[in-house]
TrEMBL record:
Domain of life: Eukaryota
CDD domains linked: SH3_Nostrin
Coiled-coil portions: none
Annotated localization: Cytoplasm
Name of protein: SH3 domain-containing protein
Ranges of Polar residues composition bias in the record: 315-331
Keywords: Coiled coil, Cytoplasm, Phosphoprotein, SH3 domain
Main location group: cytoplasm
Organism: Daphnia magna
Region span, Disordered: 296-353
SH3 domain sequence ranges: 360-417
Length: 417
């Protein structure tokens, strides 16, 4: 505010000075022209100009004076406000320093009284800290983890039509069982193909002992365990549904027995509905489950056989557990990479810490047409892609690697180079 009034004061002063000079010029002109005989008209004109300039001077001086007084009042108000602010800050600073002094005194008293006790407490911690062993503690945790069962109990789906104690029309029960069997068989075939893809990758790793680190081998092993567990889940669901269909139509179906039947228990839950629980045995870690599959739904490797439609897809093997496990190129340090491989003239090379590891390759091929993967063990290719071939399967599907991704692709879509 003070700066604004100072600016207005300067402008008013300048205007006042200009008006005064203009008035003086006009008065001098009247004085010079007095000896001369002027007409009444000229005299009236000069007098009007003189009055006008005199009025302008009075007005400019009044405005200038007003600006000066208001600027001074504003300065006095600013000065008073500044002094009050200074006194306020002084009081606040005094209060802050007094509180700091009081806090410092309390700290001093605290250290004086409690430091000896704290030193004694620290001395008592010497033995526990020195005897602390991270390895021993982790070993006990590892022992508990290793002693726990490998697989949890599996809650198998129990459809309403599956249990004959539930009242249902015969034809609708038959239709429901056939529909559920179709879902389970489709997912069972998909999981079986996924297991074969992971087993192909595991076989490639076994044929090259120096390819891949310990963590990478463990990752493939865990994926196989997950696939076996999922296959057991689907296979026992299929067997249950099949035997229910046998009870309904013994002529059309045959009763199926399975080694996992003795690990299956059926009871009623709190709502009075049937619930089947499968407790997987430990031998499932190393043994494959006997699966009775219908005709392979992938078809020949011509790229035209699509994925089997299934209303059960949202629970199928293509979920998070089916993410591209066989599509991983393993580095020697145990890390997984999805694009860190470089292609040489005869094989794929993965370089880690300046150490090159050669992946077995039986040749190279160039993609002629584009192919989008329909299943998670397949490889998407585009025209012009150069693929390293690892295996040529009899059904027309080849196993290969492209840009660090391993999977199968139709042989009719490529040409060897």
């Amino acid at each position: 505010m003070l700066a604004e009034w100072r600016s207005a004061q300067a402008k008013a002063k300048k205007h006042c000075y200009l008006s005064a000079r203009e008035n003086e010029k006009m008065q001098d002109q009247v004085f010079i022209n007095k000896p001369r005989a002027l007409s009444d008209k000229e005299t009236a004109k000069l007098e009007a100009k003189c009055k006008k300039t005199q009025e302008a001077v009075r007005k400019a001086e009044g405005e200038y004076y007003t600006c000066c007084t208001k600027a001074e009042r504003s300065r006095l108000e600013w000065e008073s406000t500044t002094q009050r602010g200074g006194r306020c800050f002084h009081a606040l600073e005094q209060e802050r320093l007094e509180q700091l002094k009081d806090l410092l005194s309390k700290y001093y008293i605290c250290f004086r009284d409690y430091c000896p006790k704290l030193c004694q407490a620290v001395d008592r911690l010497v033995e526990p800290v020195s005897t602390c062993s991270v390895d021993a503690d982790l070993q006990s945790v590892s022992s508990l983890r290793d002693s726990a069962p490998t697989f949890a109990e599996q809650l198998l789906p129990d459809f309403y039509a599956e249990h004959m104690s539930n009242v249902m029309n015969r034809e609708r029960r038959k239709e429901s069982l056939e529909r559920c069997l179709h879902w389970v068989r489709s997912d069972l075939e998909r999981e079986s193909r996924g297991r074969r893809g992971v087993e192909n990758l595991a076989k490639a790793l076994q044929e090259s002992p120096h390819f891949g680190g310990e963590e990478s081998q463990l990752e493939v092993h865990e994926k196989l365990l997950h696939l076996r567990s999922m296959l057991a889940f689907l296979e026992m669901t299929r067997v249950k549904l099949h035997n229910s269909a046998y009870e309904l139509e013994p002529v059309r179906y045959r009763k199926v027995d399975h080694p996992l039947f003795k690990y299956l228990s059926v009871h009623k839950d709190k709502q009075g509905m049937m619930q089947s629980v499968l407790k997987l045995p430990h031998w499932i870690d190393n043994e494959d489950i006997e699966i009775e599959l219908i005709e392979d739904g992938r078809g020949t490797g011509d790229g035209n056989s699509g994925q089997i439609d299934s209303d059960f897809d949202e629970f199928s093997s293509q979920g998070s557990d089916g993410e591209v496990s066989s599509h991983t190129v393993i580095q020697r340090n145990g890390a997984s990479s999805n694009g860190s491989s470089s292609t040489s003239s005869s094989s794929t090379t993965t370089t880690t810490n300046n150490t090159a590891v050669m992946v077995p390759s039986v040749g190279k091929c160039r993609a002629l047409y584009s192919y989008a993967a329909n299943m998670y063990d397949e490889l998407s290719i585009q025209p012009g892609d150069v693929i390293n071939i690892h295996d040529k399967q009899a059904d027309g599907w080849w196993l290969g690697e492209l840009s660090g991704t391993v999977g199968i692709f139709p042989a009719t879509y490529v040409e060897e180079v």
